[in-house]
Design goal:
49% strand, 3 helices, alpha+beta, two-stranded antiparallel ribbon, 127 residues, six-stranded mixed sheet, globular
């Protein structure tokens, strides 16, 4: 049985994979704080919406090897994604998103993302 928190994180990843900004934001509190390590912080749905609209790609990320670990109102999703970053070629990235929930919605999100160092024979990257 999947918990509500794990289900919400899966819905968020599915929304990103569809470039569905509102699908992501529907799962967030109005005053959500999102820190993208190495890039900065975003506060509130409107600032996040503006950021995502500016940085959304015509080719949304493809997630794989994802694992969600949950404890109380905190969960982490770790995995890999194939995507094209702005001004670069498509590549595989390893990521970890740490979620804090309040009232069943994401109140705080901290994201770590690094380019994977090598690709294995199946075309996916190994870190």
């Amino acid at each position: 049985m999947t918990s509500k928190i794990k289900q919400t994180i899966q819905e968020i990843n599915d929304a990103f994979a569809r470039n569905d900004i509102e699908g992501f934001l529907d799962n967030c509190t109005e005053d959500i704080s999102w820190t993208i390590e190495g890039e900065g912080s975003l506060q509130g749905k409107s600032e996040i919406r503006e950021f995502l609209e500016k940085h959304s790609s015509s080719a949304p990320p493809q997630f794989y090897d994802c694992r969600i670990i949950e404890e109380g109102n905190t969960a982490a999703c770790v995995g890999k994604m194939r995507m094209k970053m702005p001004d670069s070629q498509e590549a595989v990235y390893a990521f970890c998103d740490i979620y804090e929930f309040s009232g069943g919605k994401v109140a705080d999100l901290r994201s770590f993302c690094v380019k994977a160092s090598t690709e294995n024979e199946s075309g996916s990257s190994e870190v």
